[in-house]
Amino acid sequence: MVTNKNEIALITGSAGFIGFHVAKKLLKNNCRVIGVDCLSNYYDVNLKIKRESILKKYSNYRSINANIEENNLLMSIFKEEQPQIIIHLAAQAGVRYSIENPRAYLNSNIIGTFELLEACRSFPPKHMLFASTSSAYGFNETLPFTENQRSDHQMSFYAATKKSTESMAHSYSHLFNLPTTVFRFFTVYGPWGRPDMALFKFTEAILNNESLDVYNNGHMKRDFTFIDDLVTAIELLIEKIPDNEASTVSKFDSLSPIAPYRLVNIGNSKSIKLIDFIKTIEQITGKTAIKNFMPMQSGDVPSTLAKNQLLRDLTNFSPQTDLYYGVKKFINWYKDYYD
User: Fold this and answer.
1) Is 137 a catalytic residue?
2) What are the pLDDT digits (tens) for 257-307?
3) Side-chain half-sphere exposure of 95, counting CA atoms within 13 A
4) Where are the beta strands (DSSP E) in the chain?
5) How many whole angstroms separate alpha carbon 35 and alpha carbon 254?
6) What predicted TM-score, i.e. pTM, was given to this entire model?
7) Is the predicted pLDDT of residue 4 greater than 60, yes or no?
8) Candidate list 61, 97, 137, 158, residue with the active-site label
């Protein structure tokens, strides 16, 4: 774990849902954290400002509000700070929004990641870690998803950009010997979550007696991962630095044969029906949802399910948080925050 006060971690997207939780955990472990976030207006900026205000209470936190795709911004930060750990979480997220505004994904996900890779090339860190998504598996009907499966048929531009960044990172890892771990996240949820995510939207609608859209007539299935589990997995993986000259940890290892590069699923390894997910919210709130059943949304996949064996092989940990517990934690936060 990162406990060295002299260790510097740079986190992009630090005011975002996941970035905030990861930054707070590392700050508590006495790591010096540099957070870079543009505080975009994709959703309520006040939520991002509030997250950032909590991080700013730590003396070992430096906040930089800027777009990572800005030419040479990250290069100048790397030159000044020379961080040893890079956790790249900044991205334009959301499957549906990528249909409406694909350029935002091109700029943030592709150009932003390129700027980061160039900075890492000039000032090599000890370990570069960054977020991808379960959506990168695309039209893949073999469940559970494993890191060594082919994933060539992305179904949204969002997923396509994230898969592209995986390939970009692999090329830099190979060419410049940059140790790189890429996470594929599976439907992360919890306190301080994004307003465009299902749990946030469903809770808001149910508590306000508004109808909620249920896509694919409720037959969607998702592997829901509680935020605390995700943060623990990332924290443990920081010290699991890929080395392509070392032996693979098991037959499930995704370690590249030509680069210090590894891909790791982080999910709960349980596929929950969307309608059962809604029932859990109803049970906790004591209110019945007004459901508006809809056909499948363009770009969505019907089911996700992570195989976590590689994460367990590397860290002896896998997410286990019960859905009811995690949803209740979110609803309690939501009521407190919006009271």
Assistant:
1) no
2) 999 999 999 999 999 999 999 999 999 999 999 999 999 888 888 899 999
3) 18
4) 8-12, 32-36, 61-64, 85-88, 127-133, 180-185, 188-189, 211-214, 221-223, 225-226, 261-266, 271-273, 290-293
5) 29
6) 0.95
7) no
8) 158
